[in-house]
């Protein structure tokens, strides 16, 4: 944003000792009509000092003589940066006038350089406050599923991860305060994300390559959950939430508190959630979705020591979750499969600002995570997943040099992943990476130029990898990936000898070690071409090393009802005189290479706001699960030789060149001070360059949202139309269109020092039958039917 210059004088001169004493500096924040703005936040950049304006729009800050930059933030207004020079023996106040904005402008923490969502060349969405609470679901993906450009790989309400512009899994990084969540959610959609939205302050979504800050795993985007588990002030404040949902009888209780004294700040939060099987609209007899119940609990403790120029803090989190995995059956018998998840996470954060000639700020982040996930069938542990990870990032930002802002980032990450059991579809592996990144930005008049580069070294190792014997059964009828979980076995002579090559492969154990050097480059421009408008252009070249599961998988994946084989192995099904079989691939294991262009047009001043995004992403050697015409045994020993074999559809990871392109638009009209209307839509196409579509691509959608914000009453109505998705891959079926109608109403009141809100929210009010095209279990787990949730939330 354009900076305004004002000179503010201090009330006392420097003491004879030359020590600078802080004195109160007063100011007032108003809108363009001269009306005071209460609740505006005034922050001194480069320090931890901030204050909030009172009902008259006035504020007071204690600062020492010198030059500063004040950052002013107020809801429904454009942010403003003010250059301030404090001189002795002067008493001039600060007067700031803010422009209204229909687009909600929010400062983001996902970048080490301070900016808001409209100052970034890369599109960014932030969900927070009442909007976050009203859209909050038990899973992260479902919580974000209404955000523009974001979908969910809905897995029966018990697990889901976000899909950003058609990309998910290891391409979308989920972080907590900027560090990887450290779970197994990128290994399979049935693995829950180990984060809790009810105790989260806000969620930032970066749509597009964010590899500069987060590594090659963020080639598709980043979802960053921000909380105050490592507190940055001793201000006493807290939140509480109690809710009940009628559809699955879910009960939720959560709360958090921050406080402190002197230089010590403390934080505590906790939650408990329990739900039964959810109810879906009836179709072909579907009613209650079996094995979709869940129970989870967790807490976090944190503390920080505050310095004049920064802070250092530590937190500990414990998460315990047990949930059903829907859709697993043997024949006509539904088999209860449970996931038992436990995670312990330690996090260290620090930030220090300096007046050094060269160094301006040093930020450090360290996280150690111990994750355990067991899958139990009929009470017996079948497979256990463990992920022990360590991550550290240090950002060193330099003082402004010829108006350039930026610095270096040093990043280290190590993950030790093991899967043990009858259905361990991927072998134990270790993945480590170390990287150096550089970022810079500078204003040239009305143009902001953003540059960045990153060099990373990633290594994947695994020992005693074994290619198991696998009997393939050819499927003659096309089917959706989970339309049929049970396939009749073909008659095979088990005494028939496999070909010589297969016999040699089956008995061979081998070690795997792959080293990659992903390089990422980006350039972005934000041009304020006229007052209240800007145009953003982002160009990115990114590389991504394949994940261990994409390379090494070979076995039944119980949660998705599929048999997965990694890209390290090749399927031979066209050799005359030989049965179909696997061997080690003769192809080179290569990195994904992404070239991305993103264009954004934004109007952000006034009562009418507009954001239009268009993107084109070309990815060479894109790894994805390709459906085959074969099925394979599910790995169970059924005892009776005459019993029909239970099989799973076979999927093989393959690398193909693809293109993804799409369009996103959002229009916001602040009709009156109380009433607003938002309409938004997005569409994406994801195609193989050789011809054909990528599987599980999100459908186009158009949504309309009406909001009312009164003194005591607030309400919202959300209508979303999902179009038919018939751009399908081979062996994939289409999904019909559907309309979802959601609504909420809130009553706000105060008891003592606590602000409270009683609320009622309804989802799928028309009880629409809806299949989520991006879900592996779309035919087995439709979206929940009509639900009504009521609760009370408070803050102080």
TrEMBL record:
SUPFAM superfamilies: Carboxypeptidase regulatory domain-like, Porins. Keywords: Cell outer membrane, Membrane, Receptor, Signal, TonB box, Transmembrane, Transmembrane beta strand, Transport. The keyword Hydrolase does not apply. GO terms for molecular function: siderophore uptake transmembrane transporter activity. Residues 119-222 form the TonB-dependent receptor plug domain. One of its GO terms (biological process) is siderophore transmembrane transport. GO terms for cellular component: cell outer membrane. Residues 261-765 form the TonB-dependent receptor-like beta-barrel domain. The keyword Ion transport does not apply. It is found in: Cell outer membrane. Residues 1-22 form the signal peptide. Residues 477-502 are annotated as: Disordered. It is a multi-pass membrane protein. Its main location: membrane. Residues 487-502 have a biased composition (Basic and acidic residues). Belongs to the TonB-dependent receptor family. This is TonB-dependent receptor. It comes from Psychrosphaera haliotis. The lineage of its organism: Bacteria, Pseudomonadati, Pseudomonadota, Gammaproteobacteria, Alteromonadales.
């Amino acid at each position: 944003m354009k900076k305004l210059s004002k000179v503010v004088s201090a009330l006392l001169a420097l003491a004879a000792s030359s020590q600078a004493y802080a004195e109160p500096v007063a100011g007032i924040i108003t809108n363009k009509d001269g009306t005071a703005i209460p609740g505006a936040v005034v922050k001194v950049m480069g320090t931890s000092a901030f204050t909030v304006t009172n009902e008259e729009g006035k504020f007071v800050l204690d600062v020492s003589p010198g030059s500063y930059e004040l950052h002013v933030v107020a809801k429904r207004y454009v942010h403003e940066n003010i250059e301030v020079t404090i001189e002795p023996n002067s008493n001039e106040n600060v007067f700031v006038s803010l422009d209204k904005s229909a687009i909600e402008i929010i400062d983001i923490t996902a970048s080490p350089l301070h900016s808001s969502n409209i100052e970034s060349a890369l599109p960014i969405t932030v969900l927070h406050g009442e909007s976050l609470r009203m859209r909050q679901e038990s899973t992260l993906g479902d919580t974000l599923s209404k955000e523009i450009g974001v979908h969910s790989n809905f897995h029966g309400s018990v697990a889901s991860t976000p899909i950003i512009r058609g990309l998910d899994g290891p391409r979308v990084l989920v972080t907590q305060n900027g560090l990887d969540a450290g779970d197994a959610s990128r290994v399979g959609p049935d693995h829950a994300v180990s984060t809790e939205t009810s105790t989260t302050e806000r969620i930032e979504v970066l749509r597009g390559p964010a590899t500069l800050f987060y590594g090659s795993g963020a080639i598709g985007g980043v979802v960053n959950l921000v909380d105050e588990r490592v507190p940055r002030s001793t201000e006493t404040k807290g939140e509480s939430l109690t809710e009940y949902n009628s559809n699955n009888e879910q009960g939720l209780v959560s709360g958090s508190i921050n406080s402190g004294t002197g230089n010590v700040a403390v934080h505590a939060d906790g939650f408990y959630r329990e739900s039964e099987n959810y109810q879906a609209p009836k179709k072909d007899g579907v009613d209650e979705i079996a094995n979709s119940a869940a129970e989870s609990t967790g807490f976090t403790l944190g503390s920080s020591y505050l310095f004049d120029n920064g802070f250092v803090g530590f937190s500990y989190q414990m998460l315990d979750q047990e949930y059903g995995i829907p859709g697993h059956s043997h024949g006509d018998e539904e088999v209860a499969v449970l996931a038992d998840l436990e995670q312990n996470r330690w996090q260290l954060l620090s930030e220090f600002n300096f007046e050094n000639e060269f160094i301006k700020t040093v930020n450090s982040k360290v996280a150690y995570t111990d994750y355990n996930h067991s899958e139990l069938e009929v009470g017996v542990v079948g497979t256990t997943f463990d992920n022990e990870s360590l991550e550290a990032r240090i950002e060193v930002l330099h003082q402004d040099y010829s108006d350039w802002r930026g610095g270096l980032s040093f990043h280290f990450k190590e993950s030790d992943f093991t899967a043990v059991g009858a259905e361990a579809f991927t072998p134990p592996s270790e993945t480590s990476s170390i990287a150096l990144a550089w970022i810079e930005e500078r204003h040239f008049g009305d143009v902001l130029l953003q540059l960045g580069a990153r060099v990373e070294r990633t290594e994947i190792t695994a020992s005693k990898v074994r290619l198991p014997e696998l009997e393939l059964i050819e499927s003659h009828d096309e089917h959706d990936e989970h339309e049929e979980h049970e396939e009749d076995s073909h008659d095979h002579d088990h005494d028939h000898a496999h070909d010589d090559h297969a016999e040699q492969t089956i008995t061979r154990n081998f070690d795997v070690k792959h080293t990659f050097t992903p390089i990422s480059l980006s350039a972005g421009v934000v041009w304020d071409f006229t007052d209240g408008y800007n145009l953003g252009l982002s160009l990115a070249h990114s590389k991504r090393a394949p994940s261990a599961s994409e390379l090494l998988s070979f076995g039944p994946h119980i949660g998705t009802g599929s048999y997965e084989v990694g890209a390290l192995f090749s399927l031979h099904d066209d050799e005359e005189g030989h049965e179909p079989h696997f061997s080690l691939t003769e192809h080179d294991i290569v990195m994904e290479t992404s070239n991305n262009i993103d264009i954004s047009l934004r109007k952000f001043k006034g009562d009418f706001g507009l954001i239009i995004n268009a993107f084109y992403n070309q990815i060479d050697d894109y790894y994805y699960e390709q459906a085959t015409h074969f099925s394979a045994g599910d790995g169970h020993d059924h005892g009776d030789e005459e019993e029909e074999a239970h099989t799973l559809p076979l999927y093989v990871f393959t690398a193909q060149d693809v293109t993804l392109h799409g369009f996103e638009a959002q229009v916001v009209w602040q009709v009156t001070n109380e009433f607003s209307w938002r309409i938004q839509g997005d569409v994406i196409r994801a195609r193989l360059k050789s011809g054909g579509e990528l599987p599980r691509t999100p459908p186009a959608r158009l949504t309309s949202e009406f909001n009312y914000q009164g003194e005591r009453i607030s309400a919202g109505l959300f209508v979303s139309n999902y179009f038919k998705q018939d751009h399908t891959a081979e062996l994939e079926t289409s999904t019909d269109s559907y309309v979802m109608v959601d609504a909420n109403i809130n009553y706000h009141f105060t008891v003592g020092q606590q602000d409270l809100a009683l609320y009622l929210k309804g989802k799928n009010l028309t009880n629409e039958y809806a299949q989520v095209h991006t879900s592996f279990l779309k035919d087995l787990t439709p979206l929940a039917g009509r639900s009504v949730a009521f609760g009370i939330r408070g803050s102080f």
